[in-house]
Specification:
It is built from 13 helices and ten strands. With 321 residues, the protein is an alpha/beta fold. InterPro entries: Cyt_c-like_dom, Cyt_c-like_dom_sf.
Length: 321
């Protein structure tokens, strides 16, 4: 009975690769662990696993590496590999394995020794090629020939602001002929994107306020019951108090989102919070357009992290009524 129980347990266990390493294609692509690199050729010196990864040279989206505007590594998404070119036939699984381990293309050409040759189990190489297929689909999900699909924020105020910004963006031509649509699967999750950008937008506004105060010693930050006649602060803090301050003839310098966002908020009777959501949505959509006709989600996320939000804010000055 005990032997039968052990047998049942063994049969129920998932299969494990012979080398004992879980064959995770994404981990292989991003970290290189599970593949043994050799420098200069299949017989070259062995390098530590993880020292080279596909993503490190070919980009997190597999679209190819660039440096100084020049391409330094080709695209390796499966769509690119499986498409024949004038230089080579299309790759299939065996051809991909040969390229990876020997550096030989389907046309018989040996690629540059700058790309290491990798040794690994059949399971590892199969997992990597499967990930390249999945990567193509994930990177371009929601991206159609003439549409780009986004998911809206859950918050009602942010949702309304996002819809208004999308409408304005589409009126301005969209992104390389693509209109932004609402749907699933989405290329862009506006809920997460706005949540990422809003704190950074507020920090950029606070930094601009500090510059104003530093450059003009006569300005004071807003404080309740202050007797200051010249005030500089963010629109978030000044917003509810602006009518009273202006009616008292106080000079106000308010730092807030770009005029397009503020104009929409004023016309719609919305507050500064909604204006910021509009500005964050427009910043994200403009970034998508800047990525060109063939954006990928990884490149968008990378550019979003480095996006300079200072151009998205404005100083609004007014002296009394």
């Amino acid at each position: 009975m005990r032997r039968l129980a052990v047998l049942v347990l063994l049969l129920a266990m998932p299969a494990v690769a012979q080398d004992g390493v879980a064959q995770d294609g994404a981990a292989l692509f991003n970290g290189g662990d599970g593949l043994q690199p050799r420098l200069g050729g299949a017989d070259g010196p062995v390098l530590p696993q993880g020292q080279f990864s596909c993503a490190g040279c070919h980009g997190a989206d597999g679209r190819g590496g660039t440096e100084g505007g020049a391409q330094t590594a080709p695209a390796i998404g499966w769509t690119s590999l499986a498409t024949a070119t004038p230089q080579r036939p299309a790759y299939d699984e065996p051809a991909f394995a040969r390229l990876l381990t020997q550096g030989i293309t389907p046309s018989g050409r040996t690629i540059s020794a700058r790309m290491p040759r990798f040794q690994g189990s059949d399971q590892a190489i199969a997992a990597l090629s499967a990930h390249l297929r999945d990567l193509d689909a994930w990177e371009r999900q929601g991206l159609g020939a003439d549409t780009l699909t986004v998911a809206l924020p859950a918050d009602p105020a942010a949702r309304e602001a996002a819809l208004a910004a999308i409408a304005a963006f589409n009126r301005d031509g969209g992104s390389f002929g693509r209109r932004v649509m609402i749907g699933d699967p989405a290329f862009l999750d506006l809920d997460a994107t706005i949540a990422t950008l809003l704190p950074r937008l507020h920090r950029a506004e606070d930094a601009r306020v500090q510059r104003l105060l530093s450059d003009d010693s006569g300005l004071r930050p807003y404080q309740e019951n202050s007797q200051a006649r010249r005030v500089a602060d963010s629109m978030n803090r000044l917003g509810p108090h602006l009518p009273r301050l202006l009616s008292q003839g106080i000079e106000v310098q308010a730092v807030g989102p770009l005029p397009q966002a503020m104009g929409w908020a004023l016309q719609s009777g919305r507050d500064a919070r909604a204006a910021h959501a509009y500005a964050a949505t427009l910043a994200a959509l403009t970034l998508l357009r800047d990525l060109g006709r063939q954006p990928t989600r990884s490149r968008f996320e990378d550019m979003l992290e480095r996006l300079d939000l200072d151009p998205m804010i404005q100083v609004y000055r007014q002296n009394g009524p």
